[in-house]
Amino acid sequence: MRRFVKPTVDKRSSTPLHLQRRLRVLVVDDERDTVLTLMELLRDQGHETRGLYKSREVMAAMKAFDPDVVLVDIAMPEMSGWEVAREIRRHYGESRPLLIAISGLYKQSADQVLGKLAGFNHYIAKPYDPAVLLRLLYGEFPS
Q1: Domain residue spans in the chain?
Q2: Running along the chain, 143 residues long, what does each successive block of 10 average in pLDDT?
Q3: Is pTM beyond 0.85 here?
Q4: Does domain 22-137 have CATH number 3.40.50.2300?
């Protein structure tokens, strides 16, 4: 099983590892436009992506795709993003994959606290800034 390695600079090269290594990113959101936009952004950066519109499909996708990063909408209709994060952490542990909560709800500080309890590493609000998302993905912000 592959493990997520926090991107750093290779000692032999000044190129960050995220530019040397292609990440697998699973995008989970019930909003089609959000999934497609995130997938396009990440593919443009050279990463492999998969998108889901139903949270109940996440665990099967985890086994089949083995992502390094999972972006999950908090407000999913069948199973909340909190539940998805807890399920992933229960099966895969605390260190892998990197979990990023995405939400259109504007109560960021409360969501960040709850997100940490559920096992998320980071939280970003919709509409998200692509530069902020990429910095989170590349480990340029502390957890």
Answers
A1: 22-137
A2: 40 46 93 95 95 96 96 91 93 89 70 68 85 83 49
A3: no
A4: yes
